[in-house]
């Protein structure tokens, strides 16, 4: 596997022209771009993935349907499509991805200071009734996926469910969007 490089950003989310390896960007805490893709079905359920127990950040915790980094030179939509293919085995057209908003995650330090998330996270929504049985989950990335009712998801993010990656601002904004538009 080749090492992934990320474009380093300034405080306004603009590329600086510098690129660093994924490992170095997270070791130092350099600002970069990530993508988060939520899948919503016609039953008003969100698809969640359980991260592999071997992941550096938040192992074995439930997370966004699909999430990852924009590699150097990639647009957010290109990264969203690549991550969707890598993490759940789906190939979708650009039009399937509805851009919702961008969240700034400021210097989340984990793993005893060895890993720093410092990112702009572009959040997308995909409407799909895909069956879980049709998804292809790479075991080094994803342990399991599950459709979860929004009411149950609200309980989880309130600490009344299984362990979930802390994306508080994103969850709040996603739920606001879903209540208004869906």
Automatic annotation (TrEMBL):
One of its GO terms (biological process) is isopentenyl diphosphate biosynthetic process. InterPro entries: NUDIX_hydrolase-like_dom_sf, NUDIX_hydrolase_dom. One of its GO terms (molecular function) is isopentenyl-diphosphate delta-isomerase activity. PROSITE patterns: NUDIX (PS51462). GO terms for cellular component: cytoplasm. SUPFAM superfamilies: Nudix (SSF55811). Transmembrane segments: none annotated. It holds the Pfam family NUDIX. Gene3D superfamilies: Nucleoside Triphosphate Pyrophosphohydrolase. Residues 30-176 form the Nudix hydrolase domain. PANTHER family: ISOPENTENYL-DIPHOSPHATE DELTA-ISOMERASE, NUDIX HYDROLASE DOMAIN-CONTAINING PROTEIN. This is Nudix hydrolase domain-containing protein.
